[in-house]
Amino acid sequence: MKVEKAKVIEVKVNMWIEERTTKEQESRKANWRLEKTKKQLEAEEKRGVQEKAKAKVQREKQLKIAEEKKMKVEKAKVIEVKVNMWIEERTTKEQESRKSQLEAREDKETT
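^ that's the sequence the OP posted. Answer follows.
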């Protein structure tokens, strides 16, 4: 009877140990999955932050390029205005020169 009780106790202890081991393994697996999920979320968040930073840098580059183009256009317009003013001034001087030469010829012819 004592032997049977001892065997029953041993079986119960072994079952308890097995149950405990199983629970510990399940707990470790759950913790591992949780840690894995946490790392994945952190990696996704990091990628998101990096992508946002990359997008911001890209927007800034595009704005800079647009600003540079705008400045080039404005500079070209200023140059065009200056050239047109120079042409107009040159044309006016040539016309005045021709006019004065013509008047000088007419004065010579009349005298």
